[in-house]
Specification:
Layout lengths: L1 E7 L2 E6 L9 E11 L1 H7 L15 E9 L11 E4 L2 E2 L5 H4 L10 E2 L11 E5 L3 E3 L6 H20 L6 E5 L3 H12 L4 E6 L2 H9 L3 E4 L5 H9 L6 E4 L4 H9 L6 E4 L11 H6 L3 E4 L5 H12 L9 E6 L3 H11 L5 E5 L2
The structure holds zinc ion (ZN) (2 copies).
Length: about 350
């Protein structure tokens, strides 16, 4: 089978490798779509702190089950699936306390262990989530990023009647906003600098604040009143927006840290103490988040199509990164098409 191997930042070669043997508790899947995400882009630029080369990428996927091991009962040949890409130890404190997404030995496919950028992939059946027959391959590959958003919203708690501010309109911020709305938030506002991403959020039914033109505090009060936001989701991972989150929080607001910070953050501890703010981290997802993500899509509550801006063929994998570098904010989700 052909496998895409990133040999060094920015360089992908295709190699012919044997298809691994299917063990009794494993399945063989034929890859259909692979989404490219922000973390993949960091790897392409040589800026992902926990990834070494060569690396096979691919962790946002949809695929068809083509073979199952003797002991597999969860899925059958012909099923459409997506894969939970975490490889965990199963014995550490987080793993034994229902928090395996925080495993002490966590490895993620496409980063610290082999990803799915190949014609076929062999994986433990328990990592597979069956998608509805009616779901498209593209939408199937979007379930993983949606699961990130679902996990973050669930970490926050019950959305019913709550006012939500999302900082950042990239795919994750956009999906967090859509998820909060789908899960009952009374109001959702998304602040972003890019006109393109603001328009995308609007198209997905989200109210927006143009962070380049509007005063953020005035816009928050205009939309939510002086009580401002109950929850603020930081979905960029930079100091400037974390500062905004803390400065513009109401007393007692909760700030959800969803963005991945490359630099060490420096935050206003005085405000957190004096305003009794709650700061909550959110990292990846668990199986129940995938299940909820599939349900939300099946119920027609999530717009993925606006987020999928580009499609490239598997053999043009490198081109995906070239166009991401060129298009910048206008490349939201690039899909690698396997056929
Ligand atoms: Zn990702
Ligand atoms: Zn563990």
């Amino acid at each position: 089978m052909i496998q895409a191997l990133m040999v060094k930042p920015g360089e992908i070669i295709f190699q012919d490798v044997p298809v691994p043997e299917v063990k009794p508790d494993q399945i063989k899947i034929k890859m259909k779509r692979i989404g490219v995400c922000g973390s993949d882009i960091h790897v392409n630029h040589g800026k992902h702190p926990y990834t070494s080369y060569p690396v096979v990428q691919g962790h946002e996927v949809s695929a068809e089950v083509v073979e199952i091991g003797a002991k597999v009962t969860e899925v059958k040949v012909g099923d459409k699936v997506t894969i939970q890409p975490q490889v965990v130890c199963g014995t550490c404190y987080p793993c034994t306390h229902g928090m395996y997404n925080d495993c002490e030995e966590l490895k993620v496919m496409g980063f610290q262990t082999t990803g799915m950028a190949s014609e076929y992939f062999v994986v433990d059946a328990k990592k597979a989530l069956v998608l509805p027959e009616t779901m498209s391959w593209e939408h199937g590959a979007m379930i993983e990023p949606l699961a990130v958003a679902v996990h973050a919203v669930r970490r926050a708690g019950d959305m019913t009647g709550k006012k939500i501010l999302v900082l950042g309109g990239g795919p994750i911020g956009n999906l967090v906003a859509q998820t909060a709305k789908a899960m009952g938030a009374a109001g959702v506002l998304l602040a972003e600098l890019s006109g393109y991403r603001l328009a995308a959020a609007k198209k997905c039914g989200i109210d927006t604040i143009d962070n380049a033109k509007e005063d953020l505090m005035e816009a928050i009060i205009a939309n939510f009143g002086t009580d401002r936001a109950d929850y603020i989701f930081e979905c960029i991972g930079i100091n400037a927006t974390m500062k905004q989150a803390i400065d513009y929080a109401r007393k007692g607001s909760t700030i959800m840290v969803v963005g991945v910070f490359a630099d060490l953050g420096s935050i206003n501890m005085g405000y957190i103490q004096d305003h009794e703010l709650t700061l909550v981290g959110s990292a990846m997802y668990r199986e129940e988040d995938f299940v909820k993500a599939i349900e939300l899509v099946n119920d027609g509550l999530i717009d993925f199509d606006t987020l999928i801006t580009h499609r490239v063929k598997f053999e043009d994998y490198e081109k995906a990164y070239k166009l991401i570098d060129e298009q910048k904010d206008k490349a939201m989700k690039v899909m690698i098409e396997m056929e």
